[in-house]
Amino acid sequence: MGEEERQEENQQSNSQIELTETSESTNQQGHDWPLKIKFDVPPYRTYHFHKQFRTGPNPNNFLKGVKWSPDGSCFLTSSEDNTLRLFSLPDNGSSDHVTACSSASEEDSYKAELVVSEGESVYDFCWYPYMSASDPVTCVFATTTRDHPIHLWDATSGLLRCTYRAYDAVDEITAAFSVSFNPAGTKVFAGYNKYVRVFDVHRPGRDFAQYSTLQGNKEGQTGIISAIAFCPAHTGMLATGSYSQTTAIYREDNMELLYVLHGQEGGVTQVQFSKDGNYLYTGARKDPYIMCWDIRKAVEVVYKLYRSSEDTNQRIAFDIESSGRHLGTGGQDGLVHIYDLQTGQWVSGFQVAADTVNGFSFHPFLPMATTSSGHRRFQMPEDDNEDLHLRGDENCASVWSFSYDFTAGEQC
Questions:
Q1: Distance in angstroms (rounded) separating the CA atoms of residues 4 and 11
Q2: 72, 364 contact by CB (below 8 A)
Q3: DSSP annotation of 12
Q4: Least packed by Cβ within 10 Å: which of 38, 61, 228, 332?
Q5: 3-state secondary structure of 34
Q6: Polar residues: which segments have biased composition (predicted)?
């Protein structure tokens, strides 16, 4: 498949990945705005995209996820056609006059600025944590796909910067199921079957540190490591979710296992720390509850947040807004539900699509969010039922704007 040629190109491009650790405040501009989102007021749809996802031979191509860039200038979507699309936010969301659009519109709000096609199904993708549109060197994101190494893509040109390759016992490339940069942006952590492999960002290729998630015959984490998240409070901890229905907490520096959390009814598909690092939120496939864990008490479930996901194999993402007080999650009912993290109580919900809302991501500092929707449909070759073809309000991505108040003396 031309892998050897690609490897040579990657070695030649090593000089192009001089990613530098910029000041954290650069990417968190606006985080200290005295802004309070009014979740009791339904948001309005600012931008809508669906037509460009229907190109190609598969009319039922559906979205699988969406993530804002760390600087908030754009967002990235992943879809079933093995393609990632980058949409820039017009005026970086600073325009005072925005016209709300309808999901019934035949045209998209605007076209994707960048389209990256992978050779196989995309398992996971993530942004470089210090990505800033003002510094093209930092504009990169990582992807992991079936039967391929980890790819690092240039978000301005769409070119492949380099690859990070892991090999199995017979010296064949093995694909990661999850990928994440550490908070410092110096390492790439990747989840495999019963292993976590750690690559140096500045050294692409096949050099990596390997850590087993099993502690001999004792307690450990079995199965495929399907999700990775780092504590934002710089405590040096990370969490990994597994399809074995467990979540494990490790030390970042030496991957020492601290404890394993049990309780999800399905394979864990997402883990995320609270902003202060004291709590961990986990979600699983075909499990209707997001669990909140107090990691200071190791095994205690504080509360559970309901979402409709019992009957779909689709991954359903949730996210915590910049102030750390609210969590938003999609569901198979086409709604986004907002919860108060201080009380665990439901706050509000709003209709997003006529299909499963599988992706939800808050803007890093503006009162906005983006969503993606759709799920796999099974159709017999001789079945020509038009109802099985996705409509613009089913397989779509949207940007939503929330009402807000300026609260003097408070910070997000």
A1: 11
A2: yes
A3: H
A4: 38
A5: coil
A6: 19-30
